[in-house]
Amino acid sequence: MRLIQITDCHLLADPLAPSRAGFPLRQLQAVVEHARRRRPDVVLVSGDVSQDGTPASYRHALEVFAELDCPWYWLPGNHDHLADMADARALHDQVDLGDWRLLLLNTQVVGEPHGEIGEACCQWLDEQLAADSRPTLIAMHHPPLAVGADWMDAIGLHDRDAFWTAVTPHAHLRAVLCGHIHQAFAGRHELLENAGEVAVYGAPATADQFLPGAETFSIDQASRPGYRVVELAHDGLSTWVERVTL
Known about the structure:
Layout: E1 2-6, H1 24-36, E2 42-45, H2 55-65, E3 72-74, H3 82-88, E4 94-97, E5 100-104, H4 119-131, E6 136-140, H5 150-153, H6 160-167, E7 173-178, E8 185-190, E9 197-202, E10 226-233, E11 236-243
Parallel strand pairs: 1-2, 2-3, 5-6, 6-7, 7-9
Antiparallel strand pairs: 1-10, 4-5, 8-9, 10-11
Helix pairs in contact: 1-2, 4-6
């Protein structure tokens, strides 16, 4: 099973509008075409599909993702307009991946750049993990641990401790896939009570890239757009990042 994660498209109503360092729609088109040639079984779009939250921006996204030859699912980021996004295409909270399962969380706090999972979602997550022992991935927009950039860590998942408490009893959680950070990232979180550890992966944006390790907001002018590939097998997962030359 091959899952591809695409994230942080930051599309605008104007299809020709630039971002700080490029052209979001053109870059998304290039990334999707590159990813399509990798023959994914499923594609995850992990938030900030839109920059301006307009219905037109989601229509642009639908036109691009229609080029995929597989099912695809999306979840909201802090920039997304939830109602317009859901009107454009349904939001799902879980996906059956055969021997694996994917749970999708909404960490959006309306009007704020940081994320929260919330008490109700923590309870739902605990119940879902308890009900099915298949190896599981969780996808969310905001990273549930520090990524080493001060300004970004301040706007990550604010109630990350509650998230990790909810998942600690469930050893079949194998990894978390997040967006928001606009860079390739691989980290691990040690669970409480000697319950092992969970991998956390971030992916390059299709739009602008952020400079790893920066104290303040900084664009990485040297990095290219990209996506993450996740191979799911009976004995575990492997993952890597692909970059796209424009």
